[in-house]
Each structure stands twice: as structure tokens, then as C-alpha cells.
């Protein structure tokens, strides 16, 4: 994928208020389950999970599993412009 196509994909993913709320929540709460995030941003677990999957596709979030629960956290380094957007949230 060329650089502009990659940039376009990242911007499209980040151009969603629910995904920005998820990123802001994870910035303030370093590790959280889907249900914790869903409660905090007032969205269904199913919708939150879909948004997290989309964020994971651009490597903005990572996961770790503990028993049956999956926990999400921010990726250590986000490519620009993702890192910049996260810094101003």
C-alpha cells in the first residue's frame, strides 16, 4: 500500500467521534475491557467491539487476553497522524 493510501485509511478510521472517545478513554485508563469502555462511552458492547476491531486494524490499539476477557490498550507508538491526534485528545 502506498503512503497516501495508508494515510487515507488512518484518517478515515480516526474520523469518527466514537473511535476518538475510545482512544481518549484508553489514554486516561491504560487497560480496559470492552464492557468497561462501552459503559464509559455509553455505547453497546457490540458496537464498541466493532469500533475496537477497526482501531486494531490500523494498529492503534492492542489486546491481551486474561481467561475469557479481552483487554485493550493503546499501541506503544502510533504512526502520524494518529500519534498527533491522540496527543491532543
Sequence stretches where pLDDT stays below 50 over 5 or more residues: none
CATH topology: Arc Repressor Mutant, subunit A
CATH superfamily: Winged helix-like DNA-binding domain superfamily/Winged helix DNA-binding domain
Report on the biggest sheet.
3 strands, antiparallel
Radius of gyration computed on alpha carbons? 13 Å
Question: What is the number of helical segments per DSSP (H or I, 4+ residues)?
Answer: 5
What's the number of extended β-strand segments? 3
Order of helices and strands: HHEHHEEH
Strand content: 15-25%
**Mean pLDDT score, rounded?**
89
Characterization of this structure:
- The protein is an alpha+beta fold.
- It has a single domain, classed as Winged helix-like DNA-binding domain superfamily/Winged helix DNA-binding domain (Arc Repressor Mutant, subunit A), CATH 1.10.10.
- It is built from 5 helices and 3 strands.
- The chain has helices at residues 3-14, 17-28, 34-41, 45-57, 82-88; strands at 32-33, 61-66, 69-74.
- Strands 1-3-2 form a 3-stranded antiparallel sheet.
- Helix 3 (34-41) crosses helix 4 (45-57).
- The longest helix has 13 residues, at 45-57.
- The termini are far apart.
- The mean pLDDT is 89.
Defining key terms:
3-stranded antiparallel β-sheet, Arc Repressor Mutant, subunit A, 3 strands, alpha+beta, 5 helices, 89 residues, 58% helix
Amino acid at each position: 500500500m502506498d503512503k497516501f493510501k495508508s494515510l487515507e485509511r488512518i484518517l478515515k478510521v480516526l474520523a469518527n467521534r466514537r473511535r476518538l472517545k475510545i482512544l481518549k478513554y484508553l489514554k486516561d485508563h491504560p487497560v480496559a475491557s470492552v464492557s468497561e469502555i462501552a459503559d464509559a462511552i455509553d455505547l453497546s458492547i457490540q458496537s464498541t467491539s466493532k469500533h475496537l476491531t477497526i482501531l486494531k486494524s490500523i494498529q492503534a490499539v492492542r489486546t491481551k487476553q486474561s481467561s475469557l476477557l479481552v483487554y485493550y490498550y493503546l499501541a506503544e507508538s502510533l504512526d502520524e497522524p494518529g500519534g498527533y491526534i491522540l496527543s491532543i485528545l
